[in-house]
Design a protein that fits this description.
alpha+beta, 8-stranded antiparallel beta sheet, 4-stranded antiparallel beta sheet, 11 helices
């Protein structure tokens, strides 16, 4: 809260008061406190970034198994799905739409037993003695037997590829899913209208009441101060690839390969990237990047100018 409050020229406590006095509805976010057009514009941009760029920490199913009714003593994995009509591909495609309140890192749990035509919101996932329910209400599958899901839940921001979720643990036998830790597909943000940030919500897909409570509680906490460091490097690299001058494409590939080769972690984040290449000054960063074999000083300057400076400059002190 302190960062956005500073941009608005008010204290974090004043901003919390503004949010507590606001009303978050399916038609828009009503700011009942008069804060002026400039401050309202800053809050509008902040809201768009949180929702559309997926910067609110959320939990998703990153791995799944199917467990038959254990009360009958029969278990089976998702590749042998007795009682479910859909194909494995359809099940994976549907389950990876689910989005839950954030947890802590990687968690393992099991759902309640379900039967019939099942939506994502029909699952209560038990994790660490607490239950979590999906904000997304879309169709999951139809089953003719009592089915429970054994799941691996991952909390993050933005998108994570299936291949990255497959690397979480070599001994993990859950089928990996792609994850999108965001509700940006279900909230369409429009222009400001007076003191209302207008949006439309797909309430057929999103449980807005549940998400709205989560969103306001998130804003009133300090969690968002940690979001930037959770940005997936793959998203930065993917965006950068299309912007790099063709003359430096080969150097860019060598730079990205060097980064991945330098870290053994499975979840590469902006924090890792900064630790390696964001120096105490712009020149220091250029020197660090150009130290990579195959990357010239000119290439390093180009990479900073085109994209990386917006991520690195906050680390510079000189």
């Amino acid at each position: 809260m302190e960062l956005i409050a500073k941009k608005m020229g008010i204290s974090a406590e004043e901003l919390r008061g503004i949010i507590q006095n606001s009303e978050y509805t399916p038609d828009g976010w009503l700011l009942k406190t008069n804060i002026g057009s400039i401050r309202l514009g800053i809050l509008y941009d902040f809201y768009r970034e949180l929702i559309l760029d997926g910067k609110i920490p959320l939990s998703c199913i990153s791995g799944v198994k199917i467990v038959y009714d254990a009360r009958k003593g029969t278990n089976f994995e998702i590749s042998h799905i007795y009682g479910i009509k859909e194909s494995l591909l359809d099940i994976v495609k549907n389950l990876q739409l689910s989005v839950f309140p954030a947890g802590n890192g990687i968690e393992y749990g099991i759902s309640n037993y379900v039967r019939g035509e099942i939506n994502l919101s029909d699952f209560n996932i038990s994790l660490n003695s607490a239950e979590r329910r999906s904000f997304i209400k879309s169709y999951a599958f139809t089953c003719t037997e009592n089915i429970a899901l054994s799941v691996r839940m991952s909390t993050s921001t933005g998108k994570t590829r299936m291949s990255n979720n497959a690397k979480i643990c070599s001994s993990d036998t859950h089928l990996p899913l792609s994850t999108n830790h965001s509700v940006g597909n279900y909230i369409n943000i429009h222009a400001l209208n007076g003191n209302v940030i207008r949006h439309t919500v797909d309430t057929n897909m999103l449980d807005f009441d549940a998400f709205g409570r989560y969103f306001i509680n998130f804003l009133l906490s300090d969690v968002e101060m940690k979001v930037e460091k959770q940005i997936n490097v793959i998203d930065i690299f993917s965006a950068m690839h299309g912007l790099v001058d063709p003359r430096y494409k080969k150097s860019w590939q060598q730079f990205t390969d060097n980064f991945y080769d330098s870290y053994e972690a499975h979840q590469y984040t902006l924090e890792h990237l900064r630790a390696m290449y964001a120096g105490k000054s712009r020149n220091d960063s250029v020197s660090r990047i150009s130290a990579v074999k195959g990357v010239s000083y000119t290439s390093a300057e180009h990479f900073l100018n085109v994209y990386l400076e917006q991520y690195f400059s906050s680390e510079w002190t000189l």
